[in-house]
C-alpha cells in the first residue's frame, strides 16, 4: 500500500491519481492536513509533524511505500521559518523513523533546486556540488536528502530523492513557492489581464512540466535498487527561461497579453538559485528523460487553462 503525504498540494493533487492509475485505486492512500477531492481514492488526515499519527497510519494500512510530499515551500517558509522547520525537518524525520520502525520498503522524497545557494555554480549545475542554501526551505530540504542517504546507509531503509526545478501545471495552483509565477502568468494571459510579475525580467530558472515531473518521480521509485549510485539528490530538469522569455512566447499566442515587473522578496530567493541544471546522473542511472519542451508546455497550459476557465482556447483566438 502506497501512502502519499501532502497529497492536497500542487504535486500531490496530480500524483495521487497518477499512482492510482498505475497501481490501482485500492493501493493508494492520500493524506494531508487539508482535504481535497481525491476522486474516490482513500484520504486520511495526517499531520507529518505528529509522529503518533504517522505510526498509526503506517501500521493500520500496512504501508510499504511512502511518497513524502508534505512540506512548506520556499516563499511561505521565509514568511514562517518556524513552521517550515517543524513541517519539513521534524516531518521528514518522523516519516523516516516511522518507515524504519515499520519496515516500509521505500520512501521517495521530492527535493528542490532550493537546496542550492549563491556559492553554487549558476549553469549546468551537477547533482553533487556546493549546497549552501539561504532559505529555511533549502536548509530543511538538503537535510532531508542527507537524512535519506543516512537512513539508507545506516539502517538499510530504501530512501530516494530527486530535485525538482519549478513545476508548471494547471490542476492545482501553487501558492507557496518562488517559481509560482510560471503558472500564475498563464491564468492572467488566458483572461487577457495584465500580469504583475514578482521576479525580475531576466531571472532565469530551471523548470519542468507536471507530466514529466510525475513520470520522473515514479521512474525513480521503480528504479532497480542496485542500479542507483547517487540515490539521493538527483537533479532533474526540462528547460530554463526568464520571465521575459516566457512572456514573449505566450504573447506570440495571445498578442494582447501585457506584463509589468515589480520584484518582491521572492526575486531575492530566486537570485540564489542556479539558472540551469545537469541531470545526467538521473538519465544515466534510471533513464530520466522529458517529453515536454517549452513550446509544447505552453500550448498545453493555454489549452487546459482556457478550458478550465471556460474561455476559448488559442485556436479560437
Ligand atoms: N511545486 C514545485 O515547484 C516544487 C519544486 C521542487 C520541489 N517540490 C517539492 O514537492 C513537494 C510537494 O510540493 P507542492 O508543490 O505540492 O507543495 P504545496 O505547497 O502545493 O503542497 C504541500 C502540501 O503539504 C501540506 N502540508 C503542510 N503542512 C503539513 C503537515 N504538517 N502535515 C501534512 N501535510 C502538510 C499542505 O496542506 C499542502 O497540501 C514538497 O516537498 C516540495 O518541496 C515542489
Automatic annotation (TrEMBL):
Q: Could you confirm whether the keyword Transmembrane appears in this record? A: no
Q: List residues binding pyruvate.
A: 74, 112, 137, 178-179
Keywords attached to this Swiss-Prot or TrEMBL record, sorted alphabetically, are: Nucleotide-binding
GO terms of biological process kind:
L-threonine catabolic process
Q: Which residues bind NAD(+)?
A: 10-11, 32, 47-48, 69, 71, 141, 167
Q: Which residues form the NAD-dependent epimerase/dehydratase domain?
A: 2-188
Query: What GO terms are given for molecular function?
Result: L-threonine 3-dehydrogenase activity; nucleotide binding
- The yes or no answer to whether the keyword Phosphoprotein is present is no
Family label = Belongs to the NAD(P)-dependent epimerase/dehydratase family.
The identity of this protein, by name, is: NDP-sugar epimerase
Q: Name the species this protein comes from.
A: Thermoplasma volcanium (strain ATCC 51530 / DSM 4299 / JCM 9571 / NBRC 15438 / GSS1)
Amino acid at each position: 500500500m502506497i501512502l502519499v503525504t501532502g497529497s492536497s498540494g500542487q504535486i500531490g493533487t496530480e500524483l495521487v491519481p497518477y499512482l492510482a492509475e498505475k497501481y490501482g485505486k485500492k493501493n493508494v492512500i492520500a493524506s494531508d492536513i487539508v482535504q481535497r477531492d481525491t476522486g474516490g481514492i482513500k484520504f486520511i488526515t495526517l499531520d507529518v509533524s505528529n509522529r503518533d499519527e504517522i505510526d498509526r497510519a503506517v501500521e493500520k494500512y500496512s504501508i510499504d511505500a511512502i511518497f513524502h510530499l508534505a512540506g512548506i515551500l520556499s516563499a511561505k517558509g521565509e514568511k514562517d521559518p518556524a513552521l517550515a522547520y517543524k513541517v519539513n525537518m521534524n516531518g521528514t524525520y518522523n516519516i523516516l523513523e516511522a518507515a524504519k520502525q515499520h519496515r516500509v520498503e521505500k520512501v521517495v522524497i521530492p527535493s528542490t533546486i532550493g537546496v542550492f545557494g549563491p556559492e553554487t555554480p549558476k549553469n549546468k549545475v551537477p547533482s553533487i556540488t556546493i549546497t549552501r542554501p539561504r532559505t529555511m526551505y533549502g536548509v530543511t530540504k538538503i537535510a532531508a536528502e542527507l537524512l535519506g542517504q543516512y537512513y539508507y546507509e545506516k539502517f538499510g531503509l530504501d530512501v530516494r530523492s530527486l530535485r525538482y526545478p519549478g513545476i508548471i501545471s494547471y490542476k492545482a495552483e501553487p501558492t507557496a513557492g518562488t517559481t509560482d509565477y510560471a503558472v500564475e502568468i498563464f491564468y492572467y494571459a488566458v483572461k487577457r489581464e495584465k500580469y504583475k510579475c514578482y521576479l525580475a525580467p531576466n531571472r532565469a530558472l530551471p523548470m519542468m512540466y507536471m507530466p514529466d515531473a510525475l513520470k520522473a518521480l515514479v521512474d525513480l521509485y521503480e528504479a532497480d535498487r542496485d542500479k542507483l549510485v547517487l540515490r539521493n539528490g538527483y537533479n532533474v530538469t526540462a528547460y530554463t527561461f526568464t520571465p521575459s522569455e516566457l512572456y514573449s512566447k505566450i504573447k506570440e499566442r495571445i498578442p494582447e497579453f501585457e506584463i509589468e515587473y515589480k520584484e518582491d522578496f521572492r526575486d531575492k530567493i530566486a537570485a540564489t538559485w542556479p539558472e540551469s541544471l545537469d541531470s545526467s546522473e538521473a538519465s544515466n542511472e534510471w533513464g530520466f528523460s522529458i517529453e515536454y519542451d517549452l513550446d509544447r508546455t505552453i500550448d498545453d497550459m493555454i489549452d487546459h487553462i482556457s478550458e478550465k476557465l471556460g474561455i476559448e482556447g488559442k485556436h479560437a483566438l
